[in-house]
Amino acid sequence: MLSSLQNKNAIVTGGAQGIGKETSLLLGKRGASVIVSDINEKAGYEVVEEINSKGGNATFFQCDVTKEEEIIQLTEQFAIQNKRLDIMVNNAGIANKPTFMHKVSTEVWNQLILLDLTSVFWCQKYATKLMLKDKLGGSIINVSSIAGLGAAPSLGPYCVAKAGVIELTTTGALEVAKSGVRINAVCPGWTETAILDVAGERGKSAMEKNIPMGRLGKPSEVANLIVFLASEESSFITGSVYRIDGGTRS
Ligand SMILES: NC(=O)c1ccc[n+]([C@@H]2O[C@H](COP(=O)([O-])OP(=O)(O)OC[C@H]3O[C@@H](n4cnc5c(N)ncnc54)[C@H](O)[C@@H]3O)[C@@H](O)[C@H]2O)c1
User: Cα–Cα distances in Å, from 190 out to 58, 106, 146, 242?
Assistant: First the structure.
C-alpha cells in the first residue's frame, strides 16, 4: 500500500492548471495539506475547491515566481505559522514562442531564463533553507523537460533554462544529501497541456508522431511521478533526473 501523505505540507507552484493542477489534486488525494500557488487566482481557487470538496485540505497563495520577494513570502509563511514544509514542487514555467536562437531577442531570453530557471533557483533555495532549519528532511521536485536533455530547434531559451534546472537539481541535491532533504527533477516529454498551444495543431501532431508510444503524455501521468518523488516510496532517491516521455529519444 502507498504511504500516506497525511501531516505533510506541500507547495505546488504553477498549481492552477496542467501538470501543477494534477499534482495538487493527487497530493490532496494522498492526504497532504496543499498550497496551490499560481499567478492565476481564479483557476487556482478552483483547484483548491476541488481538493477541499473531496475531503482534502488546500489553500491558495498567489505568487508570481519571477519575483523573489513573493517566493520568500510563499515559503516564509511556514516559519511564521510554525509549520513544516515537507514537499516543494517547482513546476511553474512557460515555453518561448518558436524562434531560432540567432533571432531570439534579449528581452525574450531574459524573460525565459527568469521564469524557467532563476525562479526555480529561488524556490529551491528558500525551500532548502526552511527544510534544513527544521532538520526533518523534505522533498523538492523540480519540473524540467526532455528539452533540457537534448536539442529542440526553435525552443533554444527553453532548452537552456531546463538544462539549468537539471544542474540546479543535481548539484543542490548532493550539497544537502546528508540532511535528508532530497532534490530530484522530472523531465516530461510533450504532455497535453496549454503550454503546447505555442506549437499550434500542426506542431502538436508532429510532436505526437515523434513519440514512440504514439500519443502525448497526460498531466496526471507526470503528476504520478512527481508525487512518487514526494513520498516515502522514494526515500533513497536524490539528485536524480527522470524522463517521462513515452519513449521519446530525439
Ligand atoms: N506540457 C508539456 O509538454 C511539458 C513538457 C516538459 C516540461 N513541461 C513543464 O511542466 C511545467 C508545467 O507546465 P504545463 O505543461 O502544466 O503548462 P501550463 O501552461 O498548463 O501550466 C503552467 C502554470 O504555470 C503558471 N505560471 C505561469 N507563469 C507564472 C508565474 N510567473 N508565476 C507563477 N505561476 C506561473 C500558469 O498560470 C499555469 O498555471 C512547466 O515548467 C513546463 O515547462 C511541460
Answer: 28, 26, 8, 14
